[in-house]
Amino acid sequence: MTVHWVKLELDVAAFDAPRFETYVSRCRADGIRLATLAELGDTPEHRRALYDLNKECSADIPERGEFYSFEEYAERRFEAAGYDPRGVVIALDGETWVGMAATSVHGDFVFNEMTGVRAGYRGRGIAIAMKTLGLEFAKQCGAATVRTFHHPANASAIAMNRRMGFVDAED
Questions:
Q1: What is the pLDDT of residues 69-97, one digit of tens each?
Q2: Which of 27, 100, 103, 126 is most buried, judging by how many CB atoms fall within 10 Å of its CB?
Q3: Where does the signal sequence lie (predicted)?
Q4: Cα–Cα distance, 93 to 75 (Å, whole number)
């Protein structure tokens, strides 16, 4: 059976940032700190924490299969040409990493690699807050478009992106 991925894109210039800044403000008011990996420090310890968080959050992706080993993940994420620690937004509750939104650079567009929030923190707008800050990174890079794709059964991620203004991508 072939899966037809849902491919989405967002025009960075058309993004209604003020509408979504309320999610950022609400997270901060609730004690959730939002910081990039560059701000926290792109250290081996933080890379391992990102891997652990990504692995946990990815378990909910339909038909995801086994997650990469840390070595495979490090090669795909940190050694990739589009990697920039400024494009990795982390949500923290105290010192606990509770969410991540990773965006990579690809010329005139950025790609939202993964957005995930630990199960106990979902439903609080953390994912939208992280993606909103990720769009600031897209602007810094001069990207015109943000692209992403989802398994068609990942309805909550698709709905969140559509709420933010993502539309079906023209292949």
A1: 999 999 999 999 999 999 999 999 999 99
A2: 103
A3: none
A4: 28
